[in-house]
Structure formats: C-alpha cells, structure tokens
Specification:
There is one protein chain. This protein is α/β, with parallel strands linked by helices. The protein has 9 helices and 9 strands. The strands form 2 sheets. A 7-stranded mixed β-sheet has the order 5-4-3-6-7-9-8, with helices on both faces. A two-stranded antiparallel sheet has the order 1-2.
C-alpha cells in the first residue's frame, strides 16, 4: 500500500510510539474494542483497523473473504458490506444490472461456537445473502477441507484470522489458510499487539507476551517468503491491534 508522506516519520518517532502504546494499553483496561458496531452488529475491533480493512478491500477487490472468529458478526457484516460496494461499483462500471439476490462476492466465516442469537441476527441482516458460516474449530482438518472446497470457486481471496490468539493456534491457522491468499492480496492476523502488552491485561487468557499471534507470524514468515509484513499500514495507523499482522502475499 502507498505510504502517506509523514507515516514513516511518525513510525520512527519513538516517544510518539511509546505514548500511543500507553494510550492503547489504558483504553484496553476499559474494553475499548467492544465499543463499536457496523451496520447494527457489534464488532470487536479498533476503528483504525476497520478503516485499514476498508482500504485493503478496495485495493485488492477480493471476490472471497475468509474469516476465522465471528463472535457477534460485526466483522462479517462489515466485510460483506464492503464487498457489496464493490459489486455495486462493478455494476456501475459495466452497465450490467445488479441483482441483489445473486451477490458475486462473498464472505465465509468460521467459528467454534456460533451462538444462536448471533447466528439469528446475522441471518436476519440485509447483508446475510453474501455470508456463509461454518461452525467448528478453524484448525480441525474437516473444517479446513470445507473451507478449501468452498474457496475453489473464487479467484481473488483475502484472509482474516481473528479466533483463538495462542501462538500454536494462529500458526496452525496460518499454515492452513494463508496459502489460500491470492498474490497481491492479504492475510490479516489480528491481535498481534498482545506481544506488546503487559501480561496483566490477560489474567484469564491462554495467550500473552511470548505466546500470541505476533510470535506465530514471526515463526511462519521464517519459512514463507511469499509473504511480507506490509509495515506501511501499521506505520500510518499508529494505533492498531495488528502490528506486523498485515501480511501481503508478494509471490
Ligand atoms: C475476537 S472474537 C472475533 C471478533 C470478530 N472477528 C469481530 O471483529 O467482531 C474471537 C472469536 O473466535 C472464536 N474462536 C475461538 N476459538 C476458535 C477456534 N478454535 N476456531 C474458530 N473460532 C474460534 C470465538 O468463539 C470468538 O467468537
């Protein structure tokens, strides 16, 4: 992604980075990422990363987004709505009639536990006709097979990993799903920021500094030169849950 003029300078301003991390840790004490919604569904994200996803989706123009970690469905609905905008833009450009009942671009979500009320709300949402959901562990072989079978019909695929945040789980997700990422598209690994946060913020979680999505990304990249960290994104966001998590497939 093109880097804005002052982003690199901002990224090398150590005292600003320190202040940003202090602010990040402080707001996490108040579960800041739970404050927002997208088209009426709660989304567990920082607004900065929501904007970054919008920029990536507009740049890559994927026809399929695969997400692990559905929760209340906010990110599924957000990604589906952005794909709807892409379908709308295609129709305007081509002059073809847009049939909302037959969306071209789709989102596939995987979650180990899709709560009934969340499933009902997602299925009742106007974006639901471009969303499919699979319940099961994202690293279970039978679930991985279902995702691969689904993805066969698509050309440009973007991946978003936001489920269990332990090193072992994210590394297994990367091994399983990153290969589906199309060239010049992204595999976005959320909550890599855990590595930079104090353990005290995760009293009841199996992840923390030393065991988290960022350590998994670093491990994965050792043997996968087809991916590079797109630092331009974290440089301009300043505050993000995914530092070193925006992985671009370069070959
Ligand atoms: C952080 S939330 C996802 C937030 C969502 N992407 C959003 O932006 O609103 C994490 C989700 O991962 C799911 N999860 C945990 N372990 C999982 C696993 N092994 N496989 C798939 N999903 C899992 C949880 O059930 C939970 O709904």
């Amino acid at each position: 992604m093109l880097e804005p003029k002052f982003a690199q300078k901002m990224a090398s301003d150590e005292s600003l980075q320190k202040d940003a991390m202090t602010l990040f840790n402080r707001v996490c004490e108040y579960r800041y990422s739970y404050n927002f919604s997208w088209m009426g569904r709660p989304i567990i994200q920082f607004p900065q990363d929501m904007v970054a996803m919008q920029e990536l989706i507009m740049e890559v123009k994927p026809d399929l987004i695969i997400e692990t970690g559905i929760a209340h469905g906010g990110s599924l609905i957000m990604n589906a709505s952005l794909l709807a905008m892409l379908d709308y833009c295609d129709a305007i450009e081509s002059g073809e009639l847009l049939d909302p009942a037959k969306p071209k671009r789709r989102v596939l979500g995987v979650d180990i536990d899709i709560r009934e009320h969340n499933r009902a709300a997602i299925e009742a949402h106007p974006m639901s006709n471009r969303i499919d959901m699979i319940q099961g562990s994202s690293i279970a072989p039978e679930i991985i097979k279902q995702v691969f079978d689904y993805a066969k019909n698509y050309k440009r695929v973007l991946i978003s990993l936001d489920s269990n945040h332990t090193h072992a789980h994210v590394l297994a997700e990367l091994e399983a799903y990153a290969p589906l990422t199309s060239k010049d598209s992204y595999c976005v690994v959320f909550d890599t920021v855990v590595e930079d946060m104090p353990q005290s913020l995760f009293p009841d979680r199996p992840w923390g500094p030393g065991d988290n999505p960022k350590t998994a990304v670093w491990e994965y990249l050792k043997t996968h030169p087809e991916f590079e960290i797109d630092k331009t994104i974290q440089n301009k966001l300043l505050i993000t849950v995914a530092p070193d998590g925006y992985l671009k497939r370069v070959k």
